Amino acid sequence: MNIKILTPEYVVFEGEVESVLLPGKNGEFHIMTNHAGIVSSLIGGKVKLFTNSVGEAYAKNLTKENDKESVFSYPIKSGVVEFNHNKGIILCE
């Protein structure tokens, strides 16, 4: 599935991921391939991307969570996610 993370200043990440873990108002929620369409607000926390690789252009924006798994994170203050047809856009600050 394709995920794009945008801030008002720049594109944080765009690419294929296995899944994404997001900080929602009622707790974290996981979006995986073929997830039903969703629009949700996000609170402060980390957006975690589960992917095998991150392009060089985006690697500087993300933090690798651990050495064993391919999990990369990006801290946010708030935001909104829209996901439909295996494409997601996360607008955040």
Structural write-up:
It is built from 1 helix and 10 strands; from the N terminus they run E-E-E-E-E-E-H-E-E-E-E. It has one helix at 56-59; strands spanning 2-6, 11-16, 19-24, 27-32, 38-42, 45-50, 63-64, 71-76, 79-84, 87-92. The strands form 2 sheets. Strands 2-1-10-9-5 form a 5-stranded mixed sheet. A 5-stranded antiparallel sheet has the order 4-3-6-8-7, with no helix packed on it. The two termini are 23 Å apart. The mean pLDDT is 95.
Layout of strands and helices, then pairs:
Blueprint (H helix, E strand, L loop, with lengths): L1 E5 L4 E6 L2 E6 L2 E6 L5 E5 L2 E6 L5 H4 L3 E2 L6 E6 L2 E6 L2 E6 L1
Strand content: over 45%
Mean pLDDT rating? 95
Q: Helicity level, as a percent range?
A: under 10%
Q: Overall 3D geometry? A: globular
**End-to-end span in angstroms?**
23 Å
Low-confidence stretches: none
> Using only CA atoms, what is the Rg?
12 Å
Largest sheet: 5 strands, mixed
Number of helices: 1
- Element string (H = helix, E = strand): EEEEEEHEEEE
The structure class reads mainly beta
Strand order of the largest sheet: 2-1-10-9-5
Function: Produces ATP from ADP in the presence of a proton gradient across the membrane.
Main location: membrane
Membrane topology: Peripheral membrane protein
Family: Belongs to the ATPase epsilon chain family.
Summary?
Belongs to the ATPase epsilon chain family. With 93 residues, the chain is mainly beta. The protein contains 1 helix and 10 strands.
Question: Which terms would index this structure?
Answer:
globular, ion transport, mainly beta, five-stranded mixed beta sheet, 93 residues, 1 helix, 10 strands
